[in-house]
Amino acid sequence: MSITPLSSDKLYRASELNGLAADCKSTKNLTPLDEIVGQERAQQAVEFAMSIKEKGYNIYAIGRNGLGKRTMVLRYLNRHDPNGNGVPLYDWCYVANFEETRSPKVLKLPAGTGQKFKKEIEKLMLRLVKALPLAFDNEMYYSRSETLKNQLTQKQESSLLTLTNEAKEKSVSLSLTTQGEYQLVALNGEEPHTEESFAKLSEDEQQQFEETINDLEKQLRGIVRQLTELEEEFSDKIQKLNEEVALDVVVHFIKPLKEAYKGQSEVKAYLTAMQKDILDNLDIFLEESEEQVALAYAALDKKMPRRYQVNVVVSQPDQKFPIVVEDSPSYHSIFGYVENATYKGTVFTDFSLIRSGSLHRANGGVLLMDAVKVLERPYVWDGLKRALRARKLNVSSLEREVTLSGTISLEPEDIPLNVKIILFGDYQTYQLLQHYDPDFSELFRVTADFEDEMPRTDESEVQYARFISSIVNDSEMLHCDRKAIARIIDYSSRQADDQNKLSLHSADIANLLRESNYVAKSSKATMIRANHVEQALQSQEKRVSRLRDHVMQTFTNGTTLIDTQGSVVGQINGLSVISTTDYQFGAPNRITATTAYGEGEVFDIERNVKLGGRIHSKGVMILSAYLASIFGKAKKIPLTTHLTFEQSYGGVDGDSASMAELCAIISAFSDMSIRQDVAITGSMNQFGEAQPIGGLNEKIEGFFDVCGIKGRHPTQGVIIPKSNAHNLMLRKDVVAAVEKGEFQIWAISHVTEAIEILTGKPAGTVSDDNAYPLDSVYGQAQVKLNALRL
Fold this sequence. Notes:
Protein name: endopeptidase La
Structural class: alpha/beta
Domain Lon proteolytic: 566-761
Catalytic activity: Hydrolysis of proteins in presence of ATP
Distance between the termini: 34 Å
Active site: 656, 699
Radius of gyration: 47 Å
Helix content: 40-55%
Mean pLDDT: 85
């Protein structure tokens, strides 16, 4: 045979670390990488999005979990200050709207000054709480208010004295009852008339008294109106006096604040409005109404009137570019909410109970979230789109929006929103959003697509070694020596299923390093060495390989029938991969083909009983087409073939057994036996060319393990497509067996090469008269088919 097996050096590419300096003995000598390795494309996308300030340039980061998407973005943001172009940051505060209490006002303050302003207002209030009562508790105030009171009393007395004298002249007494009402009574001398004495008067006298009293009552009513006006005038004067006294105190304390914030019109306007409101609500400070004062002071933190508190919802004391990671994106955690407080059984709320969300804290910076978590939580996605479109942040009550109740709530003023959103998600979620949400492509215009693997070169191996160093340094692990670094790079290449690629699944590498570190520390080592990495990998495999052990047990006890020596007609060993969520392994399958006189159909038993998937059915149809092109160009093939995977009770899918199936059919046609010590994997096209398949290493190792169970023979081996040769990263025991000549791996480019290996005879080349040589496999099959045709 002209096909030679692959040499052992083609089965595993060991890392030589040629790019590393010879004196670099461990990760201690390597500069840690401050970025995620191999993700230049995604990093450029993030840089592009961060440099554009227009609306809609938010980022959707695509990639499998564990690629280090979040780590890369956070490292980039922390390393390059995206705020270098001078976008100002602000503190945001909510304060009372004295004209409309249900709509609290927003104050925008320079970053880092919000808490300072809050403390200054608290200090101001504490001073006023003490100073205002004192201003009304001194001789000067008492003297001025007493003067006003005396003036009122004098005017009241003089008005009544005139009427009293006039009434007395007309024998009528003006007196004040115990109920506080004025009363006019006819006099009998010096004493008031009794009913009896009044009745003894003549009618004219009685009439005269009544007329006199009626006239006096008219005058009295006029005087009472005057008295009311005098009292109102006095009240206004007292109010004016109080305001003058209070104004002197308030202005004295507020003036320095106004001076300090004269450049900020919003703050200045608020201080002016607060000054007016204090004068309108002096009773809060003078404690004239206990209930009102008690509620006014029902603050949760300080003994000061609630209406003058400053609620700092966002504070940027260090003025750093805000980078917020929201791990639990519920509606309230993102958009904020309004709390309720209870005081003496009364539930109330006000602006001081407004609480910020992560969008508030990220305002002016970046908010990072998981896309699936955002979409899972009710109303969050719609709220996020609404905020991004309007570029405003509204603390609205979710309960009021989603229910029909008319509960009174606050309507705080909107905060201008300037934020970049970065969503992390997989490709399926991205496709769903693109397809079903027309707003998505408008709001998330930048896609950061994370790679699964990177080319394996000397330079990239050095970069990967530095990446390993960064994980070691970040987690304060033991350092890895040179051989351990090489072994981890080999593992990464195996994870990528390619000698020329390295896996970028950083979570796997980090986990392996953590476990290797544990093994090294347990053995009291001072450094992680290659044997520690090997032990960690073995422990990993042992934890997840229960199913593989169970499957291998069926080969040991003979439950699953398999031959690994001898030769049989119409029977071949195919290879399959069995996967669990975190582990996959290979195992051989017996594939058989039987023939009977018929019309040339190939009956796929798996498909007919609905155990075969669509790709498997396609593979069978392709090999049927190839068969027809070989043996049925001139006449119909007079055989019907039945093809099946023996002892397969689950579903079968994939076309990686199509070459094996064809070889079994050719064996059945030609009545030539096939070697059972050789397994084959690979798909084929209609021209018989071998095509690459997946899970190559696991398939080879699975057959190697079964050969070990059934008994080793140096002739055993596996046939693979030539185009899969670069995927070989086999276990060391398999490589060692090949090196010793105890196992073979053949890489073929056409199915005829497989037939030659499996039968020991040439497949045969067709002549001009559409005939194959009699000593070939195809020639023998053609002879039998022609005999049936006759």
